[in-house]
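Q: what does this look like with flavin-adenine dinucleotide bound?
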Amino acid sequence: MEDIIIIGGGLMGSSVAWKLSDYGQKVLLLEQQGKNYKSGSSLGNTRIARSLGPKKDVFSYVHNQTVKEVGQLLHFLNGEKSSPKHKMEDIYTTSPVSYLFQKDDREEIAKFRFKKQRKFYRIASGDAAFRKFGMTIRDDQVLVREYKKYSGTMNPLALIDKLRLGIEKKGSQIKYKHKVVRLLKKENFYELEVLNTKTNKTETIQTKKVIIAAGAYTTAVLKDIAPYFRKLVTPKRVLASFLKIRDQRFKQLSEGEIKNIINGHPMFSQSGKMYFSMIDKIEKDGSMVFKIGGHLMRRNIIDLDRVWTFEPRKKEIKWAKKQFRKYLEMLEIHLEKKDIEYVGAYNCVYAVSKTKIPFVTNIMDQDGVLDKDMVVVSGMSGVGAKGCLGYGLLAADLLLGRGESSSIYRKAARAFGNPEVRLNTKRIRPKRLF
Ligand SMILES: Cc1cc2nc3c(=O)[nH]c(=O)nc-3n(C[C@H](O)[C@H](O)[C@H](O)COP(=O)(O)OP(=O)(O)OC[C@H]3O[C@@H](n4cnc5c(N)ncnc54)[C@H](O)[C@@H]3O)c2cc1C
């Protein structure tokens, strides 16, 4: 009998597994993919890391907590070595983060208390945006720039690699190519049917406690034990596009223009389809590959496994190109359509919660009783990466019955432990769905 099994080894499962191992627990992490992470929400080398938020903002908290926890993980991995092998820079690229708001959002913006945080944020509208940031914005827009150490971008796959090293170094175990095909609750334990996709053999494993961190597959894993989750979390497809400025045109850019592009990324628009762009890679010759997407450009998925093989839709790539060119125009870099080169694109998946807020929560069992031996970490949508170790901490604590006394910790635990889940589950009445 295992003590704790974690289902899913993306950013969330790896974060919880590390945190539990760090607490001295021996866990077993089951991941359906091979060691080479190829197809989950955490795929890729860049995510925006940022912490803009109002006072006691839970999303800022999980980001800040993640930075802290990454530091502790690296400290553990480096041990006593005089020249540390693992560095914060392997995970984080610090750079200004730009947010574009509509002036109508004034009330929202006021909550950020810029005056009290002048060290970290600068704000401008109208001509001041050009003077301060070299950006031309519309009269109805406001630009905010964040300057914080480790705000900028983070590398999810590099972090997963280090988390895995930490998990194993602490004596916990990871099994790749192990897919949980059935999860059942028995009297005082859980029973998992696990398919080894390499040998095609199935085994039954028992465990006292379970963490579900299966990303877009959460509802599939919970189908027998908590089918009501179908109503709370939905898998979605999003497109990540990769674009370049054509070499010939890139070479014509001045140093000042290149600096403006670098300072202008990552960028996250807070209106419309919520365009975002970031520098994914800088080539040896200095040219850049940009990752582009629309935070709200989500589509439903019929077949989760096959969605990866679908050709990216031309319409979505066209949208990405158009928005990228428009954004560069705001940075006073004027390009023709032919100057934008398509590097590639892939369909990606993630889970969106009904409340749009991630879950770190227990489930309700069939009798509507809170099951404290199971924690679900899901519904991370396009905001999970930057806070992964914050969610990991909350999930590990929830499973072990631990907690911190600070008010922001308790606020985050409440927000992600989401009373609505409980409310909804009562309303949905799990039994009715069985
Ligand atoms: C295009 C895109 C852009 C994003 N941009 C940002 C951003 O800028 N900033 C930010 O903070 N966040 C961003 N995110 C969100 C962030 O990447 C995700 O929230 C995060 O990666 C989710 O991690 P996860 O562990 O929940 O999911 P996953 O990484 O999908 O992990 C789930 C794992 O469970 C495994 N699994 C599933 N079912 C089973 C099973 N039955 N048995 C065993 N294993 C199983 C899967 O193989 C997978 O590895 C973005 C996401 C996408 C897709």
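The chain has a mean pLDDT of 92. The pocket of flavin-adenine dinucleotide is lined by residues 7-13, 30-33, 40-42, 47-48, 156, 179-180, 213-217, 221, 238, 240, 293, 348, 350, 380, 382-386 (CB under 6 Å).
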